[in-house]
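step=encode ok
step=design start
structure_in=
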């Protein structure tokens, strides 16, 4: 049986479906942004790309956590 994805990545299928871009593309946008703060990036995704708060928050949290792990 497939394991349920938990945490921010659990939002990824609905983000791709709703906004029509793959997660890797969203992550590249976040990484290339001059903004560095979590809430700054969330606000930017909401205002510039029309994402909802939960989706923007999930993308930023996951992307920043990956960057810390490198």
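sequence_out=
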């Amino acid at each position: 049986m497939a394991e349920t994805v938990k945490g921010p990545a659990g939002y990824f299928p609905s983000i791709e479906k709703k906004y029509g871009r793959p997660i890797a593309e969203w992550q590249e946008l976040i990484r290339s942004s001059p903004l560095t703060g979590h809430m700054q990036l969330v606000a930017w995704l909401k205002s510039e790309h029309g994402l909802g708060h939960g989706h923007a928050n999930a993308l930023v949290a996951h992307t920043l956590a990956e960057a810390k792990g490198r």
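step=design ok
step=annotate ok -> Residues 26 and 32 are 10 Å apart (CA to CA).
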